[in-house]
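We read letters as residues; the integers encode the fold. Take this protein.
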Amino acid sequence: MLKVSSKAISHFSLLIFAAVFTGWVIGHLAYTLVAVLFIWSVIQIYQLRRLNTWLAQELVTDPPIASGEWGEIFDHLYRIRKFRRTRESELLDEINRFQQFSSALKDAVVVLDHQYNMQWWNLAGEELLGLQNQSDQDMPLFNILRDPNFIRYCHRGDYAEPLLQKSPHNPKIELQYTITEFGESEKLLVARDISDITRLEQTRQDFVANASHELRTPLTVIRGYLETFLDQGNLPLPLQQAMLQMQQQSDRMQSLIVDLLMLSRLDSTEVIRDDEPVNISSMIMSALESAEQAANGKKHKISVDLAQNIGLIGKEKELHSAFTNLIYNAFRYTQDGGMINIKWHCDDAGGCFSVSDNGPGISSIHLDRITERFYRVDDDRSTDSGGSGLGLAIVKNVVSRHQGQLDVDSTLGQGSTFRCHFPLDTLLEL
């Protein structure tokens, strides 16, 4: 365009020079100059009208035929039009491919702005979430997904763990929600149908629960006869030792069944409702007293630091089971005379229950798996201590059901620290 402008100025300057020279020669300088400028203006107005007409047609027709600067302008605009059409065609192809790709996805994908308004979703979003193309455009996501736990999950901003909930469109569909942030506080919500996986998991849970229930009755009979025989006190020494060992193993099996039933109950119920205040300090002291009585004569140096005025909203029985497991583990695996620190406090991040010890510690290669069911760091040590391998699985499950997180720090030979973090909105002042 700079080149066209320079040429136009040069041509206009030559035209004025020729008009001035001609007017001077014929002796009518003013008339000649006015006539030339009038003709030049008419030509420019004519070309401008042709340009305006062509632009009004949105450049869909071929450019008008012209010479000189106007010809170059028309040609330049024509090249811009061709480039724009090519680019539009490429973008349309990309959009078509994206639409085909998104339509083929089985997962619901929803694009949200910074205020959680729905900007776009794919076909699966309509099928799994019940979204409508027209009526739900730019509407808040929480008009569709109104569950308080889902709203809390979104506003908390920690999307490391997915959220499991039923579809608002079809209660028979179990969905796994994940959120990814991008752009300027925008978010991508993905909802995956895990109904088949859930049914398989439910079958497994039912089997474990039923087997555990069926084992309780024969085990109770066996333990009853063992106690009866041992109470007689007149058994031969070898038989008495065998009976004592049988009683020890039956007690261990009883503990295992209790833990299995607890896990089965946790798995078979949905996320807890916020309807029960729990006095955490009192509950911790109760668990500590039980652990001290079951310490098998070990003498530990115990430090307790509890925030008496901070409670938690949740299920007391579940929290008691989780906290007791952590305290029992500290007593069970820490050597005689070892240090155990128990703390319950609140900060800007939320509430935290922690149990620290200076016991044997756990190697880093085991830390990612110690909350798995029946996973043992040391089979011999766990067998001697009577552990079932389910304690930490129960702890993680309970903490997750209370929207919390379990963290483990441990160094081999130096001790371990287990922390249960709970969000601020689950705490209350007593």
User: Anything to note?
Assistant: The mean pLDDT is 82. The two ends are 76 Å apart (CA to CA). The first helix runs from residue 2 to 26.
